[in-house]
């Protein structure tokens, strides 16, 4: 009763791709006679290699194919089933292609080449790849196919239209041959690949081809048939530009042709009688007939005509626009909105920027059709904060009516300026040195850092911080005013020279900062400070000699002044001694001094001729002074106004003209 294999079993020959594969049989058993049925399932083994239809595949791919393009490959076949059948594909490494393995509905696998990097025939004219098919057996069986790819030198550049949509308008009574629009495309290729042929797209309706003609060489679109506004108001024409390359590149554009209505239809009056005949005794107001008027034309051509009696109306009389500084040029900042209740051209509005300032034309521009105001350049809050201008809204009537709208553009501040130190000046080569005396108590203001910030508002608030110091415990800085104070009393053991670095920060976002360096000397006298300044001055400073010469000049001037004053004193003493000797000699003479009041009275009364020159010799005691008169005809006296001129100091006086009294001893 043993069931034996009679010959080698080939599952693929018996069942092909059918799974599971089974064989049915019957067994007759004698004595007693019995009939048994049985089934043998033939299990698959991985005894077949995957096989490609051919050992080599050849593809031609244009170098102009964009990345992402897919190229199906012939599939391998494996007669085994289940896991022993074809399971996957592998592609040899390369920089341009990747392999995408897909699964069909029946579970079979197929592969596609995916272009990841565009080809360039000038770099590589051909590629050789190896595609491997693998089944799922253990070990797996495989098959290989050589893929040879020829890179075709293609028309690299397709034509490009200078705009995707063209707009044109033409009157309905325009004669045949009138130019409607001229489309233009360019191709960067040379030769036939750069020659462009214009034509209608394949889906252009036949009616459009009957009404319009396109020149294939120049791209001129002209009227061919009779246009009728009442039949069609707008035509949407699709055109294409194709070069003459082997694989021609194609570009498409659209032309929108608006048919403008012409008043070519007269109004039609329809009379509907509702009460006829009319009796002679009909009451006033009785409806006799109903009239209706129609006109096939459109807009103004089909209405009771409009009068331009309404000026444009704006939504608001003025606009305030806030623009941050350092803006991107060309941005829209405002849309001026206006309406006009008139009809047709009387309601067509145009917007104009009135050039009150000639510089505004370089800064602002307005769209004439929709009133959008554009900023053409980048603004700076520190240069100008506000711009005021006028926008005129005008309709298309005759005569036109207009309305003006005022626009104010305010430039808001951004924190784009760091604090600037005014004192001490940061660019000077010689440092500023402030002086503080030893033993100075705490709280004494030594100096002050002066700074400004070109920004405005909160961005210009400056705070001061002591960043670094020779002795941090000795000085402090006011956080809001930059004043530098002594934090404690100066001691004898403190350093004679101190350098402070002050950090200045604004309160903007982001925070901008700068620093200032302060030099402070602890000195008792100015001479010490000058010596210190001379010591610390840079050797390369060209002005160090000027300081020396200035100090030397001060010393020389002081010495000259002292010598002059000493000489004047000696000279006065000498004159005083001479006058003393003269006084002693005059006391021994018998000359009697006339009464002083006699001469003064004569002068006061006008009896003394103006040509007299008076000399008065005075001593320290006026009662012993001598008074004498001498004629002096050349004296330039022209009035009686008294003039007293000092001669030799303290001793010799000249009195000219009128005198009200003699000098007192004190004088």
Throw out a few tags for this protein:
mainly beta, Immunoglobulin-like, 667 residues, flat, 4-stranded mixed beta sheet, 6 helices, disordered C terminus
Biggest sheet strand order reads 3-9-8-5
Please summarize the sheet with the most strands. Answer: 4 strands, mixed
Shape: flat
- Total DSSP helices: 6
- Looking at the overall shape, the CATH architecture of the domain at 420-522 is Sandwich
CATH class of the domain at 420-522: Mainly Beta
Query: In whole angstroms, how far apart are the ends?
Result: 174 Å
Q: Give the strand tally.
A: 42
Return residue spans where pLDDT drops below 50 for at least 5 consecutive residues: 526-534, 536-540, 588-667
Q: CATH superfamily of the domain at 420-522, called what?
A: Cadherins
**Cα gyration radius (Å):** 58 Å
């Amino acid at each position: 009763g043993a069931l034996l294999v009679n010959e080698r079993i080939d599952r693929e020959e018996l069942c092909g791709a059918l799974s599971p594969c089974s064989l049915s049989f019957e067994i007759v058993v004698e004595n007693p006679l019995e009939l048994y049925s049985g089934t043998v399932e033939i299990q698959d083994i991985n005894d077949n290699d995957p096989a490609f239809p051919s050992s080599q595949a050849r593809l031609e791919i244009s170098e102009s194919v964009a990345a992402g393009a897919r190229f199906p490959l012939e599939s391998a076949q494996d007669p085994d089933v289940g896991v022993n059948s074809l399971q996957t594909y592998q592609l040899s490494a390369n920089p341009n292609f990747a392999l995408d393995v897909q699964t069909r509905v029946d579970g079979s696998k197929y592969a596609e080449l995916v272009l990841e990097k565009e080809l360039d025939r000038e770099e590589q004219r051909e590629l050789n790849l190896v595609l491997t098919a693998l089944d799922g057996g253990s070990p797996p069986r495989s098959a290989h196919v050589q893929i040879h790819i020829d890179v075709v030198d293609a028309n690299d550049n397709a034509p490009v239209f200078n705009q995707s949509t063209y707009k044109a308008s033409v009157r309905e009574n325009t004669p045949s041959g009138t130019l409607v629009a001229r489309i233009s495309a360019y191709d960067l290729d040379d030769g036939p690949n750069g020659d462009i042929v214009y034509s209608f797209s394949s889906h252009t309706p036949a009616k459009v081809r009957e009404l319009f003609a396109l020149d294939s060489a120049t791209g001129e679109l002209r009227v061919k048939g009779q246009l009728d506004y009442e039949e069609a108001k707008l035509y949407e024409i699709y055109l294409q530009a194709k070069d003459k390359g082997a694989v021609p590149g194609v570009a498409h554009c659209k032309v929108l042709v608006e048919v403008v209505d012409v008043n070519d239809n007269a109004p039609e009056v329809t009379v509907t009688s509702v009460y006829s005949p009319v009796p002679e005794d009909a009451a006033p107001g009785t409806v006799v007939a109903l009239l209706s008027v129609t006109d096939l034309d459109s807009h103004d051509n089909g209405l009771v005509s409009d009068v331009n009696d309404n000026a444009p109306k704006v939504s608001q009389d003025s606009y305030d626009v806030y623009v941050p500084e350092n803006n991107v040029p060309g941005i829209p900042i405002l849309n001026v909105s206006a309406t006009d209740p008139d009809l047709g051209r009387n309601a067509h509005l145009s917007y104009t920027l009135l050039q009150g300032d000639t510089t505004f034309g370089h800064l602002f521009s307005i769209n004439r059709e929709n009133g959008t105001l554009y900023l053409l350049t980048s603004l700076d809050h520190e240069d100008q904060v506000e711009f005021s201008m006028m926008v005129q809204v005008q309709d298309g009537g005759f005569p036109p009516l207009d309305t003006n709208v005022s626009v104010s553009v305010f430039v808001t501040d951004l924190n784009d300026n760091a604090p600037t130190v005014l004192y001490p000046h940061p660019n000077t080569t010689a440092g500023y040195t402030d002086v503080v005396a030893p033993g100075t108590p705490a709280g004494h203001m030594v100096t002050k850092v002066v700074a400004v910030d070109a920004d405005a508002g909160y961005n210009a608030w400056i705070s001061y911080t002591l960043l670094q110091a020779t002795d941090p415990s000795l000085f402090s800085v006011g956080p809001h005013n930059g004043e530098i104070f002594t934090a404690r009393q100066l001691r004898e053991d403190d350093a004679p020279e101190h350098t402070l670095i002050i950090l200045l920060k604004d309160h903007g976002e982001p925070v901008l900062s700068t620093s200032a360096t302060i030099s402070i000397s602890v000195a008792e006298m100015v001479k010490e400070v000058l010596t210190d300044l001379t010591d610390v001055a840079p050797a390369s400073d060209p002005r160090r000699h000027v300081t020396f010469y200035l100090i030397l000049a001060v010393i020389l001037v002081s010495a000259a002044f002292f010598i002059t004053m000493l000489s004047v004193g000696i000279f006065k003493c000498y004159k005083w001694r001479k006058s003393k000797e003269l006084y002693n000699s005059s006391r021994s003479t018998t000359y009697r001094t006339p009464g002083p009041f006699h001469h003064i009275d004569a002068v006061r009364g006008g009896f003394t001729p103006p040509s007299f020159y008076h000399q008065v010799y005075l001593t320290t005691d006026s009662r012993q002074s001598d008074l004498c008169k001498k004629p002096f005809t050349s004296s330039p006296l022209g009035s009686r106004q008294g003039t007293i001129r000092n001669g030799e100091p303290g001793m010799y006086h000249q009195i000219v003209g009128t005198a009200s009294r003699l000098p007192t001893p004190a004088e």
